[in-house]
Amino acid sequence: MKFIGHDSDIINYLVNDLTLLNSTLKQFKKHEVDGEPAISLMFELAYTEADVMLVFRNVFKNGFDGNPAAEPYNVDSCKFYHIGSKIYLSLDPDESEDGHDGISEDDNDFVLASHVEGYIFEEGMGE
């Protein structure tokens, strides 16, 4: 496991170097970090032998119903933004013209948090 960034760094990393598009959400976990609500999402990336885990800390809103990773969940589209002092990820975003940029009330499967940390698990990396 290797730390690959936090907040804007991880967003830029997953836009430029790797992508969540066409990945599979393979783990979803609600928990606490330092006494604050957190959500961890593990993605199996499509174009590399790597998995990426995102840990959202100090979660304000959780727009996931149940455990989305209970069944295969393919990421066909997503929003991943730094909005003001918050981090926003939607795995089922509103793609209409009105909802394309920013948070939309029609976005689904989302998390809004103060911070996000990213970790990469590469095959043969030795943990």
From TrEMBL:
Q: What is this protein called?
A: Uncharacterized protein
Q: Which organism is it from?
A: Mucilaginibacter terrae
